[in-house]
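Handoff note, outgoing to incoming analyst
You'll be picking up this chain. Sequence as last confirmed:
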Amino acid sequence: MKRLLFVALLVLLVLGTSGAALALASGEASVSFLDVQPGSPYYDAISYFAGTGLLQGYEVAGGREFRPDAPVRRAQFAKMILGALGVPLHEGMISPFTDLGPNDPDDFYPNDDIGGAFQLGIVLGRGATSFAPWEPCRRSQAVAMVVRAVEKIYPAALRAVPAAYLSTWGDYDAQQSGLARVAEYDHLLDGLPLDGAAGDPWGAVPRGEVAQVLYNAVRLKALTVTGLVTDRQSGAPLAGVDVHLDGPYGFRCATGTTGADGRYRVETTIGDLSAALIWVDPEGPDLPPVDCFIVVETSNTAGYVDVFAPDQPVMTYRIMDDPHNLEWRSGIAKVDLALTKGFTISGIVVGEAGKTVPGVTVWVEYSAGRFYGLKTTVSAADGSYEVTGLPPGDYRVSVVIAEDEVFLLVPKVTVGPDATGVKLVLPERR
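Most recent structure output, in case you need it:
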């Protein structure tokens, strides 16, 4: 299957007075709001998304306001979901809706945001060709869109709802009340009053409630990976090894540590995974065109090496067809890891009359299967040298005196245990 990879850039939310996304530069302090303080309703949720740069609010004299009681438009909410769940976009994502206005090729909002949400089945529109993008979004619509989004993108995050379970809002609609049952049972509505004004599913949903529902969504557990880490040579379990889940391009999602028995458990939430999404072609007609490959990586592995890239300080699995690349849809996966102990080649460089030679470059070329590499060092003042962190394989050791003078002194050595005392004798100069 052809996979079109795009780095998932943070999708920023259209929530300012002009309707234009306000980007938060990397390293810039997160936004704080004059009207949202510790103890305010939805403070944690609003602060979380302000910290990611997703919520910017409104500029006022003396700072910014969030205005948690202000309504959210339908187009804004479609963008909010994609931004919170980390769904990447590209220009030209089409929908059948004719009431979105001209498409700006330099801005995803609103056409491409709504088009992406439509293609994923998150939004359905008011009719075959109408979306009503500038109307206030109702609570029932917001809840329905969030549930559909999680079901499509992170299906393992939601639990089956018992048949006898009743939601607070009751059976207010033939279709949407069922989605509200899922939302309340799976804690997507935690923190909302669900009574009084907030008890009306047909009422306009305010910005504060939207932030809370999306905050609940990103904290849902999406993927769990467990396994055993052992020494490849002895088979003994390894304790204290950090096991990381990385997304594309090295994005680190979550980390766990092996116990005394060598076993680990790494749990990730939607928020952990959302920034690691990549755009790919769908694998089937019922699957969304969004995927995330998780790569297992380990660190704190003193003395162990990456067989594929021994110069790296950690053991990694980065080959796209390797079974350690997990699709997050699996929900739970088991990955056992066997780490390879690194080897050492050491010795001394000597020249004429057996004198030690400092300051010359020693090359160690290695091959392990189809992998080839080179590690170098420089002989010390006493002529000694040491090259560490080598995987099992075949080696050639050479001395480089000048650019055009490379002497192959050890034609081939297969290293099992450490190779010490390897004397490199320079030829006599004539």
